[in-house]
Amino acid sequence: MSSFVVLGAQWGDEGKGKITDYLAEKAHVVVRFQGGNNAGHTVEVEDKQYKLHLIPSGILYDNKVNIIGNGVVVDPEALLSEINYLEGLGVSITPEKLIISDRAHVIMPYHKVLDALKEKARGANSIGTTGKGIGPCYTDKFERCGIRICDLINKDVLKEKLQENLTLKNKYITKVYDGEALDFDTIYNQYVEYAEKVKPFVKDVSVILNEEIKEDNSILFEGAQGMLLDIDYGTYPFVTSSNTTAGGVSSGAGIGPNKVNEVIGITKAYTTRVGKGPFPTELEDETGEWIRTQGHEYGVTTGRARRCGWLDIVIVNTSVRVSGLTSLVITKIDTLAGLDKIKMCVGYEFEGKVIDYFPASLEDLAKCKPIYEEFEGWGEEIKNAKTFDELPENAKKYLNRIEELTGVEISIVSIGPKRSETIEVKRNK
Ligand code: GDP
Ligand code: IMO
Ligand code: MG
Is the pLDDT of residue 1 over 90? Predict the structure, then answer.
């Protein structure tokens, strides 16, 4: 049995979708365990591109089981529209292929309304959320008033819970935020319709996954977002509302932590961030703009331009430490082709000292100055490499330095968005 986790080692959009699809070939089950449709995971196979938000990136294979775990927050409207989108692209979605946890929490219309109203009220301090209702839905989960999938598919329970919630939410929306009240009947009727369509996919995910483990089947857990968007170890409050780190797997899927064998950190060869918050190696200059253009760095979920900067090893090492990464996958190394010089942040200067960790306090973080090492660039020939040895010498130096600084082996180097543009690093052991 081998279960492995794919996690973003930075601020999201590292290429988790691409790598999950690639590695899914070796797995029997692919599981999302946290986040929701704030995620935007791109998979490219031959000439087709697929943009996934809620459905695991193993869905393109006909013989894989894809699971949305209890730790995920599910917007049924978004889920059904993603099913339609995939079916339109020729991907079959059946209850054998897609399973949704009965314990997952449901994103309701008032969560989306509150996400927008709270952001507006934060003014200059807004987080820059995706506006998908993620934070307000997780708030209700922890407040213990949320509506779960098992409640959604029971009309009477849905009615009661919606009534209770909406009464309070409408007060909150109108009296605190000056927004417009939502109508019970409209939501109830809409969600009863969604429930009918969602019901065939609903099962107890923990029971299923533990059966798979007993049968020695391989499970791939697909993280969403990334290290520094983690609610505990990210750049709080500029984070998402779930545990994006390895700790989220066990609680978000209902398996023991000892059931995971490998933790793979997906790391972009540079750094990007969407939304607000600190970013020590950000390039607010021509180079940053150049990387954005070369890397098509625009959000899959919101279309926003991603902020770009140099690779920050302090961040990757936070992921190594917090998630116990056992290997790294470096993506988008091809995007940097054409730059004369490439920099890598290897530590921060903070109050006259060199530190190699990410401070909790944003005020301290603002005082941190990145310490860089500089590398010679490489050219477009990188796209022709089929093996690690065939990569340009300067790219190999860059990659070897990442291994040295993190103490973690690179298992895969990705040189393009397509499934085929993937190099497995073979080692003589
Ligand atoms: P995710 O959220 O981590 O799944 O990443 P996104 O899909 O949001 O963003 C990654 C983008 O980079 C997508 O457009 C991918 O198709 C693309 N991509 C992934 N790996 C590579 C790579 O190695 N090279 C290039 N050029 N593009 C890549
Ligand atoms: P994938 O899985 C990049 C960011 C938002 C915002 C913050 C909080 O594609 O890597 P939220 O809507 O979650 O409350 O927003 O988190 N964010 C992401 N950034 N990639 C993502 O997902 C993200 N999901 C959320 O931009 O800064
Ligand atoms: Mg993304």
Answer: no
Q: What is the largest CA-CA distance in the chain?
A: 66
Known catalytic residue at 105: no
For residue 93, count other CB atoms closer than 10 A to its CB. 16
Are 246 and 263 contacting, i.e. CB atoms less than 8 angstroms apart?
Answer: yes
CA dihedral 120, 122, 128, 133 (to 10 degrees): -70
Domain that holds residue 311: 267-424
**Does residue 89 sit within a domain?**
yes
- 344 vs 339: CA distance, rounded Å: 13
The number of helix segments (H) and strand segments (E) in the chain equals: 13, 20
Is 21 touching ligand 1 by the criterion CB < 6 Å?
no
Sign of CA dihedral 144, 147, 148, 151: positive
* pLDDT in the model for residue 2: 85
Choosing from 156, 179, 198, the residue where a domain stops is 198
Task: Indicate whether residue 101 lines ligand 1 (CB < 6 A).
Answer: no
417 lines ligand 1 (CB under 6 A): yes
Q: Tokens 């294979």 label which residue?
A: 61
DSSP assignment of 260-291: --EEEEEEESSEEE-SSS--TTB--SHHHHHH
Q: Which residue among 233, 263, 293 closes a domain?
A: 263
Cα–Cα distance measured from residue 133 to residue 147, given in angstroms and rounded to the nearest whole number: 14
Close Cβ partners of 305 (under 8 Å, ≥ 6 residues apart): 292, 297, 298, 299
Coil, strand or helix: which one is 352? coil
Binding residues for substrate: 300-306
- The answer on 288 and 253 residing in a single domain is no
| Sign of the alpha-carbon dihedral angle for 397, 400, 406, 410 | positive
Joined together, the tokens standing for residue 217 give 């089947």
CATH classification at residue 158: 1.10.300.10
Q: How many domains does the chain have?
A: 3
Tell me the per-residue pLDDT of 98-142, one tens digit each, with 9 for 90 and over. 999 999 999 999 999 999 999 999 999 999 999 999 999 999 999
**Active-site residue, 141 included:** yes
